[in-house]
């Protein structure tokens, strides 16, 4: 996947993950950064568990990226001391 695809997928995943975790998000830049990290984390976890990770701009990759973004955002909040869910 190209860098533009990762940014687009990360932005969408970060936005959705931010809304799931704390309803307000972290701001555009932080949501994109955490979303990209979440997409990578979700891709690695799913590829280890199921043999398929993030494969492009499609629904299954978006779901994997959002799940990864939720995990990363939850961990971010745990380490930063902010309340979630």
Q: Sketch the major β-sheet.
A: none
Q: Whole-number average pLDDT?
A: 77
pLDDT below 50 for ≥5 consecutive residues: which ranges? none
Give the distance, in angstroms, between the N- and C-terminal Cα atoms. Answer: 32 Å
Structural category: mainly alpha
Total helical segments: 3
The rounded Rg comes to 12 Å
SSE series:
HHH
Number of strands: 0
Strand residue percentage:
under 5%
Q: Specify the overall morphology.
A: globular
Task: Report on this structure.
It is a single chain. The protein is mostly helical and 85 residues long. Helices cover 76% and strands 0% of the residues. The protein has 3 helices and no strands. The longest helix is centred in the middle third of the chain and has 23 residues. It is globular, with a radius of gyration of 12 Å. The chain starts with a helix and ends in a 5-residue tail after the last helix. The relative contact order is 0.22.
In a few lines, what is going on in this structure?
By secondary structure, this protein is mainly α.
Secondary structure layout plus pairing:
Blueprint: H1 3-22, H2 28-50, H3 59-80
How would you describe this structure in keywords?
3 helices, mainly alpha, globular, 85 residues
């Amino acid at each position: 996947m190209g860098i533009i695809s990762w940014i687009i997928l990360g932005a969408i995943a970060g936005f959705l993950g931010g809304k799931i975790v704390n309803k307000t998000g972290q701001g555009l830049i932080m949501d994109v950064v955490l979303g990209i990290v979440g997409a990578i984390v979700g891709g690695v976890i799913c590829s280890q568990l199921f043999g398929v990770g993030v494969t492009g701009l499609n629904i299954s990759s978006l779901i994997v990226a959002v799940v990864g973004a939720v995990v990363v955002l939850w961990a971010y909040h745990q380490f930063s001391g902010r309340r979630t869910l």
